[in-house]
Amino acid sequence: LHAEFSLIQRETGFISGIVCVLHDVTEQQKNERERRQFVSNVSHELRTPLTSMRSYLEALTDGAWKDPEVAPNFLNVTQEETERMIRMINDLLSLSRMDSGTAKLDMELVNLNELFNYTLNRFDMMIKSEADATAGDNNRTETTTPKQYSIKREFTKRDLWVEIDTDKFMQVVDNIINNAIKYSPDGGVITCRLLETNNHVILSISDQGLGIPKKDLPHVFDRFYRVDKARSRAQGGTGLGLAISKEVIEKLNGRIWADSKEGKGSTFYISLPYQEAYEEDDLWDEN
Ligand code: ADP
């Protein structure tokens, strides 16, 4: 607590009272601490790919560029690290826009069943084109065959309407499905559900992956938090995807959370306020 005292003094000089104002600075100090922690995290996150690129570039300059076996591989690593840094900076920019309130939301009334189906169709297309490419490539060895997975849909029959910024919402769903794929075992099933409660619509995505330990579960939406840092980096992750997802969903007046059993899999949930769809008659009445 921060205290401020002032004396109430009459014209005669007589002191008739004391006013004490107490400021609770706990929140302020917490914000300041979090801000410092965040800057320190960003610096570390960017230093890691930069120092690794520096050593590859040094090796190339020292003569590795002449080695046709080694050089392409080293260049590849520096390229991947550059791509990851660009992704991280873009993620940081969208977080910063949301923090400062300058991110504009383009809200519209959307049929969630249709939108979720559309998103999942895109993933099904990717699975199909991967399978075609593998079938057509006889030189492909076991180790280069991409991971197999399938998507199962369990949707309520009733149309569910929500008011969302479609682009931003689709980024969140893409991100969660990509994580589910990333952490799924070969041949894993990703189950996507859509259901409703009294006044909320709930979308969920479950995988059969390695799961998230109980102690880590409350933190997976924190900026830069990863259960396994090395694994996330190796897969090109920035550790910011779920933090951005949380910001977006909260801006849409929804909630996002996760449930998981180690070794069995994880489920990510998004709940949004349910909107009554406009009756077509109403639209005609307005005209
Ligand atoms: P990343 O870029 O590391 O994937 P995210 O913010 O998307 O960052 O996720 C944060 C962390 O949460 C991941 O590093 C991972 O440890 C964990 N995680 C997210 N989704 C899953 C999942 N479906 N199964 C297991 N762990 C997950």
TrEMBL record:
Keyword Transferase: yes
Domain of life: Bacteria
Keywords: ATP-binding, Cell membrane, Kinase, Membrane, Nucleotide-binding, Phosphoprotein, Transferase, Transmembrane, Transmembrane helix, Two-component regulatory system
Keyword Metal-binding: no
Subcellular location(s) per record: Cell membrane
Domain annotation Histidine kinase: ranges: 41-276
GO molecular function, one term: protein histidine kinase activity
Protein name according to UniProt: histidine kinase
Lineage of producing organism: Bacteria, Bacillati, Bacillota, Bacilli, Lactobacillales
Residues of the full protein shown: 342 to 628 of 628
